[in-house]
Amino acid sequence: MEADTQTMRKLDIKETAVTRARYGRIAPFYDLMEILPELRYRSWRERFWEALWQEMTSGGRLLEVGVGTGKNMPYWPREARIAAIDLTPDMVSRAQRRAEQLGLEAMIQEGDAQSIEFPENSFDVAAATFVFCSVPDPVLGLKELARVVRPGGSVLLMEHVRSKNAILGRLMDLLNPIVLRLMGPNINRDTVENVIQSGLHVEKIEELGTGGIFKIIHARVPKQSEGDEN
Ligand SMILES: C[S@@+](CC[C@H](N)C(=O)[O-])C[C@H]1O[C@@H](n2cnc3c(N)ncnc32)[C@H](O)[C@@H]1O
Known about the structure:
Blueprint: H1 3-6, H2 13-26, H3 30-33, H4 35-55, E1 61-65, E2 81-86, H5 89-102, E3 107-110, E4 123-129, H6 138-148, E5 149-160, H7 166-183, H8 191-198, E6 201-208, E7 214-220, H9 224-229
Parallel strand pairs: 1-2, 1-4, 2-3, 4-5
Antiparallel strand pairs: 5-7, 6-7
Helix pairs in contact: 6-8
This protein binds S-adenosylmethionine (SAM).
S-adenosylmethionine (SAM) binds at residues 19, 23, 65-68, 71, 85-88, 91, 112-114, 129-131, 134-135, 141, 185.
């Protein structure tokens, strides 16, 4: 592993601006574009948030990263203190509007997963759905989650990853530059490996659907003594 991935990861400001611009372009159409995939995702979102509820206590602190237009809001735990961030201003204003319509109280603001503007140990749980395919430096972002979530706290991700099937994986590599430019996500990332590289402990991986592409990744911030062992 390169030294850089272990220690001094630097925020790529240009790549981050490109990602923001891509999602700014699609924000007005995002919900429309997702109507069909969402038919499939809805039950996965329910499953994801049910798992997250198990990690929350009443009044617990939750951070949702890459909130987008707020598609997860109907599943948010009602008793939690919630903050949500997104890189893209137009996504943030849409999420704020949705929260208002749903009568939800949350701090929803612009923010970058790679440099989160909260002090360490600010949250008990962090959640992200279909986000770490787009974060320019996913390991840096995941390290930030490990910083802002308390030791022993939970990080739950729902992600699509590169297929382990040789032909499908290669096809995803070939299509990735087109999908990335048009829509914003990378379709060939190994997000489980990225989570491991970030220092979070992967506790469980739930496979969603067939083909090994969609997963719920259950990870935990190591307690200090566990971190020292790594
Ligand atoms: C595919 S959308 C998913 C939105 C939402 N989580 C959902 O499930 O519908 C990806 C979102 O991640 C956001 N995003 C990308 N890079 C980010 C970063 N570095 N920090 C925070 N949000 C980011 C994008 O602006 C976009 O809203």
